[in-house]
Amino acid sequence: MRIAIDAMGGDLGPRATVTGSLQALAMHSNLEIQMHGPRDALEAELESLPKRLSGHRSRLVLQHAPRVISQAMRVANAVREASGTSMLGAIASVRDGQADACVSAGNTGALMALARRELGTVKGIARPAISTAVPTQGGGRCYLLDLGANVGVQARHLVDFARMGAIMARVIDDTATPRVALLNIGVEASKGVPSVREADECLRQGVACHRDGYGFEYIGYLEGDGVFSGAADVVVCDGFVGNAVLKASEGLATMLLARLQETFEAHFTTRVVRAMARPALLRLKRRLDPVRYNGASLLGLSGIVVKSHGGADAKGFAYAISRAVREVDMDLPSHLARELGDAVRPEPSILSVDSDIGRADSGLANDAQPDDSNPQR
Amino acid sequence: MRIAIDAMGGDLGPRATVTGSLQALAMHSNLEIQMHGPRDALEAELESLPKRLSGHRSRLVLQHAPRVISQAMRVANAVREASGTSMLGAIASVRDGQADACVSAGNTGALMALARRELGTVKGIARPAISTAVPTQGGGRCYLLDLGANVGVQARHLVDFARMGAIMARVIDDTATPRVALLNIGVEASKGVPSVREADECLRQGVACHRDGYGFEYIGYLEGDGVFSGAADVVVCDGFVGNAVLKASEGLATMLLARLQETFEAHFTTRVVRAMARPALLRLKRRLDPVRYNGASLLGLSGIVVKSHGGADAKGFAYAISRAVREVDMDLPSHLARELGDAVRPEPSILSVDSDIGRADSGLANDAQPDDSNPQR
């Protein structure tokens, strides 16, 4: 298995991506890594690494890419000027069959736009989405999507997100029949915006009329707390909402960690207690910061692309690579293509006349230019 | 000062509201409370209370209201059948000048709809909003609005929210020049939905062209993590987004508390360490659960109405009453009326032709029927 890495573009530079790549090589003995970036910078980084990591150096090849797409770059500009960049290099390796997946910590909007252009989408999916798994009460996890690739979505996009998220939970996490919910501001049928109510109706009908069902259990509406409660395996929403929820959760976790630290420093004055508390705190810290320690998947592309958090350290980047390894192992794009490409869609006529689903063209018209979004710095 | 309490409607029943009211009386020596609810139930509750609270009983009067609006009731039904309910009784006391403010832990949508009908709105405000303060890094707080009273807002509503939130921060928290931000999925000008971009333009122009400014500093876009980072005193967004963010934060805090507890139980096996950790944990628990321990204000009404969290215990309900006390002390509605009612609005003509602000009618048409939303169970 070979994974292409965009070594540039994360907030911490090639230090995090190079070290993270070697850590991932240590974890996966069948893995090879192809690193895209300025050769001199990457070689210097490799030179300076501790000896214990260099044993895996033989499974890492460098692929020179002189240019970098910055986090601040506008998507349109990034796409136009992508030639020679580490991001395009890594994606093109997947396109050309030289790599099985690609991982980047760079500009999310540019990554999505370039990946769409170079890899294309799964048949039947108009809008790829970004998804990550957050930890839930009881020790499980919940896939949240979309995280910012699509703002102002229509009902049919929410339905697509539901189906993609369910396939993800089934294929990657072995959840036999994923419970899928729509995020709403109340659980009663009368609440929410038209696109959400429409998607609700469509999912109820679709799950019912599909011969084998959709392969998931649609459980209706959940409010924001449902993302973390363990009530669902997949929660679906518009990209603006998902992005705000994920980032706010990240901000809250950061704040709580800081306060936890303060509380301990203020109240556990004896050295022995602080020493005992430290390992527990460290363990907790990693659990409390799911966002930084997970990759996000670009779902619906004809290829595997994982976005690592822009602020991820080496360990976080290694986790993102592991997510890509898992998606390759399970052949996620084939599952998506098989289940979504051939799927019989519920006919628009059985829905209300005002259905978003009837107005397919207007939605697709916007698709040529993906939203300039950046769910993870 | 007299505050009218809707004793019914919270998840924990009159136990929490009665005890919380007596706790609030203990905190505020100039406070009188008028409790609306079924007389027999309330008297039974008062009888069963511990002696130490009964000293304040003389400043509490009961107002019989035989009926209750339930959490599950649809707003339209609740409004139609409000006669004789504890919620309408409490609101009507404010309307008739018998009370200075009203506090309820009941159905938020019904509370907003009834309060609008009975009290009216501040001149110049088309859509009242719901706002609460969340704690921020560094020990400050940030007002987030709207939390679910308005979904699918236009730019001019976001501008109104910005101005109301700023007045709240200035009047209630003594923040001299509140920093106000718009929630968006990126900080670049090209990102987000049209209403948010339009509001951004309008706020920039409004703050500039207003003779004395708006009395706040508009700092542009923030992403979700900005709600907790301390970067802003007020963060403004559509009610669907704010509701999802607030509820998700609540869910995350709950999950983290549970994990924190587990971590301690698993790793601090000696009794003495656990005993030492307990007070720190309890203190933290209250800080980590800002949502349950704060009231939310219904902003833009011609009267003070505070929503306590539906799941609030007595202490949480007492905090909500304290918030109402503070708003009465500072005469919040007069500040809103003075600053918003007479304000010169930026002219639509200086904005783009497609401005939401130009299409005032379509926005107002929906206002007769407030959204059936319920930001806090």
Question: Topology, please?
Answer:
Two copies of one chain form a homodimer.
Chain A: E1 2-6, H1 14-27, E2 32-37, H2 39-47, H3 51-54, E3 60-64, H4 75-80, H5 86-95, E4 101-104, H6 108-119, E5 129-135, E6 141-145, H7 155-173, E7 179-183, H8 194-209, E8 217-222, H9 226-229, E9 234-236, H10 239-267, H11 271-288, E10 295-299, E11 304-308, H12 314-329, H13 332-341, H14 360-365
Parallel strand pairs in A: 1-2, 1-4, 2-3, 4-11, 6-9, 7-8, 7-9
Antiparallel strand pairs in A: 5-6, 5-10, 10-11
Helix pairs in contact in A: 1-2, 1-12, 5-6, 7-8, 7-13, 10-11
Quick summary of this structure?
The structure is a homodimer of 377-residue chains. By secondary structure, chain A is α/β, with parallel strands linked by helices.
Kindly report the average pLDDT value of chain A. 84
CATH superfamily of the largest domain in chain A: Isopropylmalate Dehydrogenase
Strand proportion of chain A, as a percent range, falls in 5-15%
Rg of chain A, rounded, reads 21 Å
Report the order of strands and helices of chain A: EHEHHEHHEHEEHEHEHEHHEEHHH
Q: What percent of the residues of chain A sit in helical stretches (DSSP H or I)?
A: 40-55%
- Could you tell me the CATH topology label of the largest domain in chain A: Isopropylmalate Dehydrogenase
Placed side by side, the strands forming the largest sheet of chain A appear as 3-2-1-4-11-10-5-6-9-7-8
The end-to-end span of chain A amounts to: 28 Å
